[in-house]
Design goal:
This protein has a domain of 79 residues: Gyrase A, domain 2 (2-Layer Sandwich). It contains seven helices and 18 strands. It has a six-stranded antiparallel β-sheet with strand order 7-8-6-5-10-9. 15% of the residues are buried.
């Protein structure tokens, strides 16, 4: 049974006007409860008394009493989350346990040399120290040259920024249309030319070839020679040229040659005039009445054309190629690279034109009393084949 008392009336389950009487088993079960006997007037149930100073837990639904506002303490650990500690609490007292000995710091000793030069400790840059988790640096002895799209040139693996500066000075001035952007960062030198030099025709194609010749010469002077062309299997990716470290060649010289798909046209770019003239004489001697064109232009080109018949060119392409390579090799020039250029077909999926580079073969004076040695032993002594 429950009773609700509002200070004026008593509502119970008994009859009207009858006082409320709790059941006897209620206060017998909980001896802490006691009810005063009055003259029959209804009274409210008193608060229970708990022995031993045990306080009851708050009833469900009853609001918890608010904590007393704590005073602002000087200890940061006693501060409330929303309050900032005092500045005095942030200061740490210098004691033998915290901050070393108490007292004046030892005086700073400075000296000078007999030449009246101040002795000071050199500061170390924090950036020069190797981090614990950083990987060790290494220097590459190979370069990778890429001709991307129709107007980009990249050289990766550069160890010295001075090499990138020399490439910029020697190559960028050749292209008359200028560049959109170029720069050197983290071993990569990248240039984006204005226009499309790798798929151009006419005078622009000649200037693009001159840039690639100058690139090969510049790399040879700083100590890199052509090794191989890789990544040529996919039409969606650009072929890459690999250069390896060699002794610098301050007197490096190079020229280029292009041969048409059918093999009926040979074009030399920046070849020595006496060399190309002698080659024309050799072609007419070994292929009589089959050379129809032998002329030089003011742009540095020398063009040879082979006579065509009803079935095509009268001299097969591979036959003409082997003859020219053999003749140039005996003249002191060797093939030192093949650079695939951009295609002029739709989506650049057609056959790429190739630019063949030739350099002078360096000959060394041989000692007649010296026995022949293998290539491995020559490289161990620091000698490289030209």
């Amino acid at each position: 049974m429950q009773a609700y008392h509002n200070g004026e009336r008593v509502y119970g389950y008994g009859g009207k006007g009858q006082p409320y009487a709790p059941p006897p088993q209620y206060y017998q079960q909980y001896p802490g409860y006691g009810y005063a006997q009055t003259g029959g007037a209804p009274i409210a149930a008193p608060f229970p008394m708990y022995p031993g100073g045990i306080q009851p837990s708050p009833a469900p639904g009853r609001p918890r009493p608010l904590d007393r506002e704590p005073s602002r303490s000087s200890t940061p650990g006693h501060a409330r989350p929303g309050m900032k500690p005092l500045k005095s609490a942030l200061k740490r007292t210098r004691t033998p346990d915290h901050g070393g000995p108490v007292g004046e710091a030892p005086p700073l000793v400075r000296g000078r040399t007999p030449d009246n030069v101040s002795i000071q400790r050199q500061r170390t840059r924090s950036g020069s120290r190797m981090r614990a988790n950083s990987s060790p640096r290494w220097e590459s002895d190979h370069l990778i040259v890429s001709l991307r799209s129709t107007n980009e040139l990249q050289v990766e693996g550069i160890n010295d920024a001075e090499i990138a500066n020399e490439l910029s000075e020697d190559i960028l001035s050749i292209w008359p249309h200028g560049v959109n952007q170029h720069g050197y960062r983290r071993g990569k030198w990248k240039v984006q030319f204005a226009g499309s030099p790798w798929s151009s025709v006419g005078l622009d194609a000649i200037l693009a070839g001159k840039m690639l010749i100058r690139l090969s010469v510049c790399l040879a002077r700083v100590g890199y020679s052509y090794s191989s062309t890789i990544n040529v299997g996919s039409p969606w990716s650009s072929p890459q040229l690999v250069y390896h470290a060699t002794p610098p060649d301050e007197e490096a010289f190079a020229f280029a040659m292009m041969i048409s798909k059918s093999g009926g046209r040979l074009t030399f770019l920046d070849g020595p005039p006496d060399l190309t003239t002698a080659l024309g004489t050799a072609l007419r001697e070994f292929f009589p009445r089959k050379v129809t064109t032998d002329r030089a232009t003011e742009d540095g080109l020398h063009i040879f054309e082979i006579k065509r018949g009803t079935t095509g060119v009268l001299v097969e392409r591979n036959t003409l190629t082997t003859f020219v390579l053999t003749w140039l090799n005996r003249a002191g020039f060797r093939l030192c690279g093949s650079i695939p250029l951009g295609s002029r077909s739709l989506f650049s999926l057609g056959q790429r034109r190739e630019l063949w580079l030739f350099r002078i073969k360096r000959t060394r004076s041989k000692d007649p009393n010296r026995r022949p040695s293998s290539r491995q032993s020559r490289q161990s002594r620091g000698e490289y084949d030209a």
